[in-house]
Amino acid sequence: MSEQSMTEQTVSGECDLHDPGHGSSPAAWVAVTIMLVAFTIGTFAFWFDVPWLVWASAGLLVVGLIAGLVLSRMGYGVKGPRYASKDHS
Predict the structure, then answer these.
(1) Which helix (H) or strand (E) element contains residue 10?
(2) pLDDT in tens, 9-62
(3) CA geometry: angle 82, 87, 89, nearest 5 deg
(4) What are the Cα distances from residue 48, in Å, to 45, 51, 82?
(5) Distances in whole angstroms, Cα of residue 34 to Cα of each of 19, 38, 39, 51, 85
(6) Chain centroid to CA 29: how far?
(7) 69/52 Cα distance (integer angstroms)
(8) For the chain, how far is it from start to end, CA to CA, in angstroms?
(9) Three-class SS string for 29-85?
(10) What pLDDT does residue 24 have?
(11) Closest CA to 74 of 18, 19, 26
């Protein structure tokens, strides 16, 4: 498929079946929020030389990854049955 026809197809409102989405789903938001908090805590803990808190934040980072995967498996991912995509107009 040529570049021009792909652009025309996207502009005409047809959905590209190969587009995986941008991850804007409840599962992605929860995972990224938990990981962002973990990274922030870990950064400050490293800065203030609190090694146990650095490792605890690394554990929280893994919890964020697992939470995102679990929510995605439960249907709250981009293509999940419990996720209703919102039209951005």
Answers:
(1) helix 3-11
(2) 444 455 555 666 667 889 999 999 999 999 999 999 999 999 999 999 999 999
(3) 165
(4) 5, 9, 42
(5) 26, 6, 9, 20, 22
(6) 5
(7) 26
(8) 26
(9) HHHHHHHHHHHHHHHHHHHCCCHHHHHHHHHHHHHHHHHHHHHHHHHHCCCCCCCCC
(10) 84
(11) 26
pLDDT at 5 over 50: no
For residue 89, the one-letter residue type is S
* Of 6 and 42, more confident: 42
Domain ranges of the chain: 21-76
pLDDT score for 77 = 87
- Residues 6 or more apart in contact with residue 23 via CB below 8 angstroms: 78
The pTM for the full model equals 0.71
Tokens standing for residue 13: 């409102």
Rounded Cα distance, 16 and 23, in Å? 15
